[in-house]
Amino acid sequence: MEDAVIKIGGMSCQGCVRSVTSALQAQPGVEQVAVSLAEGEAHVRFDAGKVALEQLRGAVEAAGFDAS
Predict the structure, then answer these.
(1) How many whole angstroms separate alpha carbon 66 and alpha carbon 39?
(2) Cα-flanking dihedrals φ and ψ of residue 32, to 5°?
(3) pTM of this structure
(4) For residue 16, what are the domain limits?
(5) How many structural domains is the chain composed of?
(6) Mean pLDDT, range 2-10, rounded to an integer
(7) Torsion of CA 14, 15, 20, 24, to 10 degrees
(8) CATH number assigned to the domain comprising residue 19
(9) What per-residue confidence (pLDDT) applies to 41?
(10) Would residue 10 be called left, alpha or beta, if left means φ above 0 and alpha means ψ between -120 and 50 degrees?
(11) CA-CA distance, 28 to 17, in Å (whole number)?
């Protein structure tokens, strides 16, 4: 398992947090997600053999947010 921090732009409410959390949890190999509105980031624990960090960022962007 790997841990990563994804910086997220464009979140303004708890609904945004739920959207980002759902988008990340829907990815294969994601074990744990913690999204912080105050810090503007997501802490993700995932299986790099099943999903790449770039795919996780892509899922956040597909949900309508900026990810880096």
Answers:
(1) 14
(2) -145, 140
(3) 0.94
(4) 2-67
(5) 1
(6) 97
(7) 100
(8) 3.30.70.100
(9) 97
(10) left
(11) 19
